[in-house]
Amino acid sequence: MPRDNMASLIQRVARQARITFRSPAGPAFGENLHRLQQLLDEVRAEDLHLAPRGPSAAAAAGGGPPWAGVVPPVSYMHICETESFSMGVFLLRSGACIPLHDHPGMNGMLKVLYGTLRIACMDTLPAGAAGAAGAAAAPPLPAAGSGPCLRALFRSRQHYTPASPPCLLSPHTDNLHQIDAVDGPAAFLDILAPPYDPQHGRDCHYYRLLEGPPAGAEPPALPREVWLVETPQAADFWCGGEPYPGPRVCL
């Protein structure tokens, strides 16, 4: 894409996101979502004035290892937010993980800008739903003090790079996911619709998979039914803030 068009691309993404998520139950939602996905797929790191970072540069600047309370494992660059959606960039240090979490009643789109992400996606299952073949009839016993257990369908675990199409989630499909930076730092553009809002029941909850290690060398096949337990935010995970260096977005 020519450089003189770069400043307009993220603006066009934001405008299309506003159109798409202004009426998520409308008849044109599918068509608008597809158009947004096409635009998002065009975005590259240089469009947002981002460059891949070395795995230890931030730690050296902070005077200690990334997980020693000096440098956050994950940083967020806010781009824009309306009542219907929010958009920003997440930057993960080498080896960082955004733990398994949910997006209650929300749609989402994730586009890798640099690096490689491993994204595990799951769906919650209704309490009275019929169990899948081979699924456990009862949840394993969680540790004392843990939160409630819930059944989920572990749908996929895939690697995403800048060449991959966006990863999509809906209120009912792939709504829970875990994001790991693989073999170095990574960054992704993130759209959530509507934004998190605890006052309207859209708060982030964290979960842990309740199962032992796989019996063989290969992980169990997917999709499969699993049990999850709600947990507090992990002590070694927190998100810092950084200024967004890219083209300004006006809505």
From TrEMBL:
Protein name in UniProt: AEDO dioxygenase
UniProtKB keywords: Dioxygenase, Iron, Metal-binding, Oxidoreductase
Domain of life assignment: Eukaryota
Any one GO molecular-function label of the UniProt entry: metal ion binding
GO cellular component labels: mitochondrion
Organism, scientific name: Tychaedon coryphoeus
InterPro entries assigned: PCO/ADO (IPR012864), RmlC-like_jellyroll (IPR014710), RmlC_Cupin_sf (IPR011051)
PANTHER family, sorted: 2-AMINOETHANETHIOL DIOXYGENASE
Gene name of the record: Ado
